[in-house]
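Q: For a teaching session next week I want to show students how multiple molecules come together into a single three-dimensional assembly. I've collected the sequence lines for a complex. Could you give me the predicted structure tokens for the whole thing so I can convert them for display?
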Amino acid sequence: MSASSFSNPRLPAWLMLVGGHRSGLLLGLWLILGLTCLLVLGNGVVTIGPGQAVAILADGLGLQTGWPFSREQQIVLLAIRAPRLVLGLLVGASLAISGAAMQGLFRNPLADPALIGISSGAALAAVAVIVLQNTLFAGLTALLGQYLLPVAAIGGGFAVSWLVYRLAGSGDRLDIGSLLLAGIAINALAGSATGLLVYIADDDQLRTLTFWSMGSLTGVGWDSVLLGAPFLALNLLLLPLLADPLNALLLGEAEAGHLGFPVERIKAAAVALVALGVGAAVALTGVIGFVGLVVPHLLRLALGPDHRWLLPGSALLGATLLLWSDYLARNLAAPAEVPIGIVTGALGSPFFLWLLFRQKLMGQ
Amino acid sequence: MLIADRISLQIGAKVLLDEVSLALHPGEVLAVLGPNGAGKSSLLRSLSGELSPQSGTLSLNGRPLPAWYPGQVARMRGVLPQSSALAFRFSVREVVLMGRSPHRKTHGHARNLAITAQALALTDTAHLAERIYTTLSGGERQRVQLARVLAQIWEPCGEWHRYLLLDEPTSALDLAHQHAVLAIARRFADTQNTGVLAILHDLNLAALYADRIAVLQHGRLAAVGTPAQVLTGELIRRVFAYPVSVGSHPLYPERPLTIPHMLRRADTAGRENG
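A: Of course. Below is the structure for the complete assembly, covering every listed component.
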């Protein structure tokens, strides 16, 4: 789409400065993400300047920049901060793009993977694995090894997505009321099942669980990045391919079918990819809510609802938002860390309430 | 041709269509009339592939409907829904451009934009192109959706005939736009050899623009033929259970003109009891 052929009336004047059209905005998002990465890499007990961070990364690729850095800085950056950064990038991008796709699929801007229960389904499966991996699931543990956790979380996410879809989808229109109610029911169900598992967990498992259930990027190394990256990358690379059919689905399922899209297959693919991304994200970092709700919403205001722009834009802004949330999580109560899920929750829930009020005021 | 051959459709215990046979020919405007719940929408949604009849067959251009790929069908057949669920803030141009999605691989973007502009102009919505769809009135939305469907089947599709299925295309429109929409349908039939099937409620509108009229009642085909053959006082009184007089149009004597009688209070009471 030639962006110049659309003078975008949705764009507030101050954003026009960033770039009069959508490609300019996407470029701006790339830029902000890049700067955020440098900031995050430099933040911590060992300070690393942006120039030094670039120099260390260049050195890793065999390039000399002449910028001085110490051995300690190099180790901290490459072994501790870089994996955390990469995981944050992937998880944030995945959560946001999944939120955008889910909202397209449900034709409702309030459909967030966490809100409608996909995350808690994934979390329940993950908790079950953590608590029961040496007893009930011993056979599976032997079979799948470290992959059991992400695979189970993805399965849990998938099961819930499908269940919610069946519950809320009556005929060709999905009712947001039943959607959110289904989400509440499933969140409650998953919550009590998780509670039961927590109750029977031993002390060691309990520590893992509490930390993980509030969402955290603490202590991730390259091993967890490698574990989750394939799933998250699939989600990030394949979801944008569904942009055209998702646009058509906004017209209605029947209309999308009349435009020649294989609707049932598209729906199944979207649900599977969202479950893949959200499940893997939950398995690695716990439940981090609201990213999938806030990011696509902000971007729709600036870019419009066209998924060809919205999906890549969401990935970029989602990654940025997650890195900033992680930055806050590390610095709000330094040297202690606040779980990142608490940060995104604190930022996201007022936003969600504001959305509801706005919808009510506009009489939608 | 787009043919329904003895299709029957049942949902639960309710029979929506009962052995309905109807063919839509290239180049004709076929109006489908009938009281509420007669099965008009069910027929259209069967022809559009949304509903699958339990028995009977549907065929498009000589091949069973399910034998075509969805993408092929989309280039031959446009469907205008009764109302659209679109609640996202697309611009009007973006909505109409979506009608070109089946052609994105074969046509350049400039070509698709040009067709979009022409479809907007034809439906008298060009001035709305930059507006946000969700801020439009019901009538404006209906015309924009029509533009989208027209853009979809704008050009000949190889050797295959094209069809347009319109589900109450005039329900939200004022007098001038009702006629404008049917004139567009007429023009697509005459100049593009497109077959147009439109569900209508206004008998006189149907009589003016349609080549043939099909009347449904209780899921069965009650009559099909030219407006003069079908729109008789006897048939209308029987199917719609309402008293009318039928004359001929003062300007177009071959077209029937239906004049409803006034409903008196006693009749209302009688109808409520019945």
